[in-house]
Design brief:
This protein is α/β, with parallel strands linked by helices and about 280 residues long. Helix content is about 40%, strand content about 20%.
Length: about 280
Amino acid sequence: MIVKVAEHAGFCFGVRRAVDKVYELIETQDKKIFTLGPIIHNESVVEDLEAKGVQVLQGPEEFEKVGDGIVVIRSHGVGKSVYQKLEEQQIAYVDVTCPNVLKIHRIVERESKKGKNIVIIGNARHPEVVGICGWSLTTPAVIETSEEAEAYCPENDNGLCIVSQTTFNYNKFKELVEILEKKRYDNNVLNTICNATEDRQRETKELAREADTMLVIGGKHSSNTQKLYEISKHECGNTYYIQSPVDLDSEMFQSSSCVGITAGASTPNKIIEEVQKHVRIKF
């Protein structure tokens, strides 16, 4: 049985940078370390950090717990008001927001100052999108489905500035933009899906077309991993979403001559290697 692993599977630059920074702080600081939300959507990494004393804050309402500790702003980023609260409460913080996300913050702030209607293509509940919304001076609209795009009406006639969640499905982004452009608004469309996401999605699609069985590895709350699963499932019906080798079952590989493996941006290389090794040895 052939086992193929996608080249861009696993940690992206922004996630690796964030995780490495937390481990660095553990080694170099004698203060308590807090992350604003789980540093990444991967249970094994979060559990390891918790075992080393890192605590997860669910939101700014828990800043009172920090004291003289340090808060790490994760790669997803946060809204402008969160920075203001940190400054007001004189809380030390380290910002590891992904540079690609920071770029979107600057765009949204700049264009909303001009009075533009801000449209964010993405999941309204995702922390990255929540953070992006927090930089708009006008009321932003978040669109995830074709129905939402069809129903959208801008608040004013100042035109649209359309951006995307960095991990959104690229083909879906194009589809939704096409719907909005048919309405003939004055649109400024900025494809802010990061290159790593596009590469990962393209490779997953190509690999799924070759494979008899596809394994998509990632945390159950990882948005970008869920997108990979959807893309893979469309090309290969025998696609499985797993978190670790524990989730593997021999029934997954019946009559399989080629197994493809891909993983979300928050999946450590160690887990990918363990899954690959397990498949080769056990099946």
